[in-house]
Specification:
Layout (H helix, E strand, L loop, with lengths): L25 H8 L3 H13 L3 H13 L3 H13 L7 H13 L3 H13 L7 H13 L3 H13 L3 H13 L3 H13 L7 H13 L3 H13 L7 H12 L4 H13 L7 H13 L3 H11 L5 E6 L5 E6 L1
Antiparallel strand pairs: 1-2
Helix pairs in contact: 1-2, 2-3, 3-4, 4-5, 5-6, 6-7, 7-8, 8-9, 9-10, 10-11, 11-12, 12-13, 13-14, 14-15, 15-16
Length: 314
């Protein structure tokens, strides 16, 4: 996929910690003291929820050493996040790997992140890909999206599309956007502007600012829908108000041309200025030309290769 920042959501699993402490009954404690791994984990989990991480660590360690995958995973989390202990990526890696080898889906994902970032272990893209795939195949949506990003970066668009689509079907807004982009440009899938439009709509419903911009383009250019400048203005405005620079440039152009709105040079300047401030070169160029009273401007869109293409307008 071209001309899109690959926001690889390669982040570790977050935990919501309940404020309600789980009572430790005498029977569970007795079982734990007698070496029952599950009881040891339960006690560790109780202390974990109380945020007494030192005691949680003690009991998780007892359970983990007996092979409990959940306890092993929790130790990885504790060492990674420095919860009651000193941050230790090597120990985090050690326990994530033990848990991951037993099929723990979150451990597989987080182990992949350690390999990807080179934390506690030498950076290894092949291992990161391997463990992401294992986690994704077990249904972890974050792993699906991260795996798609990996394949996208390698220009393996068929695999990228496959995993973006999996992630998108589970509601990932950015994956929905990228599925639209891939349908629009025919990357990893047969080009289909109607499907691209539908996926942009899905992403836009969840508030994605780039999806707003693409819907604006489709209405402005009459792609898969009847050309409608008013709807283009509406979508560009939604995107521009969220500081998306390409939308700001195109919105400025529509005010300058009077497309879908009354021609308004000052409003056009305002949007070119905002686009320029947000890093869009064409916004800067158009603002400069307008300020110099040189009546030649550029309208920006994307070509078939997914690159920004700005056409001079007299």
């Amino acid at each position: 996929m071209k001309n899109f920042a690959k926001v690889a959501l390669l982040s570790f699993t977050l935990f919501s910690v309940s404020n309600l402490a789980v009572a430790i009954d005498k029977s569970t404690l007795q079982q734990a003291e007698q070496g029952d791994a599950m009881a040891q984990f339960d006690i560790g989990e109780s202390y974990y929820k109380k945020k007494d991480y030192k005691k949680a660590l003690q009991w998780f360690t007892k359970s983990a050493k007996q092979g409990d995958a959940d306890a092993q995973y929790k130790l990885g989390v504790i060492y990674y996040n420095a919860m009651g202990v000193k941050e230790d990526y090597q120990k985090s890696f050690y326990w994530f790997k033990k848990s991951a080898k037993q099929g723990h889906v979150n451990a597989q994902y987080d182990l992949a992140m350690l390999y990807d970032e080179g934390l506690g272990v030498e950076k290894n893209d092949r291992q990161a890909l391997k463990w992401l795939k294992k986690s994704a195949e077990q249904g972890k949506e974050k792993a699906m999206f991260s795996l798609a990003v990996k394949y996208d970066g390698k220009q393996d668009y068929q695999q990228a599309f496959y995993w973006y689509k999996k992630s998108a079907d589970l509601g990932n807004t950015m994956a929905q956007l990228y599925v639209g982009v891939m349908y629009e440009h025919g990357e990893g899938v047969t080009k289909d502007l109607n499907k691209a439009f539908k996926w942009y709509q899905k992403s836009a419903k969840h508030g994605d600012v780039e999806a707003y911009y693409h819907l604006g383009r489709f209405y402005s250019e009459g792609l898969a829908v009847k050309q409608d400048y008013q709807k283009a203005i509406d979508w560009y405005t939604k995107s521009a108000n969220r500081s998306y620079s390409l939308a700001q440039t195109n919105l400025g152009m529509m005010y300058y041309e009077g497309q879908g709105v009354k021609k308004d040079i000052e409003t056009a300047k305002k949007w070119f200025r905002k686009a320029c401030k947000n890093g869009d070169k064409m916004g800067c160029d158009n603002l400069l030309l307008l300020s110099k009273n040189t009546w030649s401007f550029s309208y920006c869109s994307e070509n078939e290769n997914g690159k920004e293409e700005c056409v001079p307008i007299q």
